[in-house]
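3.2 Worked example (two chains)
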Amino acid sequence: MIAFLDAEYNIEDKRRTSHTDMSLIEIALVFIPSLKSEKETFTYHAYCKPFKNGGKIYPTITELTGITDSLIEAEGQETFDVVKQVLSLFEKYSPKHIYTWGDFDEFALKKNLALFPNISGKKAFLGKISDIQPKIRKSLDIKDSVSLKNAALICGIKPQGMHNAFDDALTLMKVAKNVREKKYSKEKAQNFNRYIKLRDEYNKLKIRLTKIEEMGESAESFAQMALKNESFPDFSDFTANTPRSFGDDRS
């Protein structure tokens, strides 16, 4: 038996430090006998009331996940009850691995489980959580980190709805199955590697051009000079006390 897990958290700070509020607000698990299985054995999904922030969802999290205060009021359970349910399912099905996408879920769940020191089974549960992304990347020959959404696209799977724990857990399972059965596009995987390189170069270029603008120069003019393979102007042409230091033609 193996399981696929995804969860959403009420995160107040993008830095995600150990002191950041990351209360569990949604969790989903999909249990299957193996990746060869046609159908899942059991699925679990629950919403949790945030442990902090007065039980309210941060606006940025609502925007990201669609989880609202009214949804939590209507369907949210106490975190303690959800944790007990999850650990009970873990004990019942005894999965060999609990796969997640990325290593953040293990970190965040460990922090949430620490709120309940007297509940047994936490250590064993956390010990089974495994980030499957490195295995998927190796199989697809992808050189950099890849989102679940993009991995799904490479595998010919239409993502259900990102940042919805139940949909993401199902998508994660489908990606793992397709990779095992080699149902993916090698061409798309290679295109993704090229895309990442271009994206990184673009972001570097954007930072450099922004710095040029902040220095009072025309980033567009400098970009045109570079594209034409022109040499940088001589210092004798430089006038630091003018709006554009290298002449009015670039203003």
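3.2.1 Second chain
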Amino acid sequence: MSVVLQKRKRKILTLFDSGALITSAKFHVRGRLIVDYLIDCCRITIPPEVKYETVDMGLLFGYQDAEDLSKRLNAGHFLVFLPDLVLLLVNKGWMKTPLAMEILETIQPRYAKGFIELALKLLKGVI
């Protein structure tokens, strides 16, 4: 890790879609996966749907990049975005909307302005 990265106290917060995650887990530079360079300086968040598409389904088909991503996910290098998880649970019928709204309102102080508001509007069917 470079001196600049070692001095950085906070990692850059990022949100990855499946394309960025798969691409960075497939290719190597200087003997390391690109995703490992990104982990050094970023806190990577992935929505549950992205985890499902890139890791869960990839493992079923035996893809090496899915195995690499799974190891990093299990090591805590990726965050699964909680508001998206709550929305997914409601959409699958595994959580009732009133409970989901209560959860989202409770966790709102932990997220940047707009994230929870968007999730609540999605739950209410406003957008």
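3.3 Remarks
The radius of gyration is 17 Å.
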